Structures are given as structure tokens and as C-alpha cells.
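Bench log. Compound arrived from synthesis this morning; before running ITC I wanted a structural hypothesis for how zinc ion sits in the protein. Inputs:
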Amino acid sequence: MNRWNAEGILRDQLTWALQVKHVVPEFRRRGKCMLCQRPDVNEAGLCIYCMAILDEPEHTLARRWITGAAP
Ligand SMILES: [Zn+2]
């Protein structure tokens, strides 16, 4: 565990973070991107720059937050 609650999470943890229900809301509450800590995050806890670099299945999982299907 790399202190996701104190800083950003690692890219290889993103798929996990998007599948548990407590991580994304925490970053949304702080208003910081899960990966890069930029302000201005979407419903998936990610900024527009990180959203653009997601691969599958990350993008599908992030979309689930944005559309309200997750958690
Ligand atoms: Zn970001």
C-alpha cells in the first residue's frame, strides 16, 4: 500500500482504486487527481489529462464513475 490517502496513487493501482468504493470519493472530496494531484477532477477522481491517458480497463472503470454506475 503506497499511502493513497496521503498522496496520489500509483498508476498500477488505478484499476484497483476504481473498483473499490472508498478511494474515488476521497480524492473527489479533496479535489485532487488520484494520479497527478492536479486540482479539478471529474466524478472518477481524475483530471482531464489523466483521463486522456487511460487504457482499458481503466477507462471503462472510470466511465462507470462518471455515468453514476459506480460504486
Ligand atoms: Zn491527473
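What the model suggests: The first helix runs from residue 14 to 17. The pocket of zinc ion is lined by residues 33, 35-36, 38, 46-47, 49-50 (CB under 6 Å).
ITC booked for Thursday regardless.
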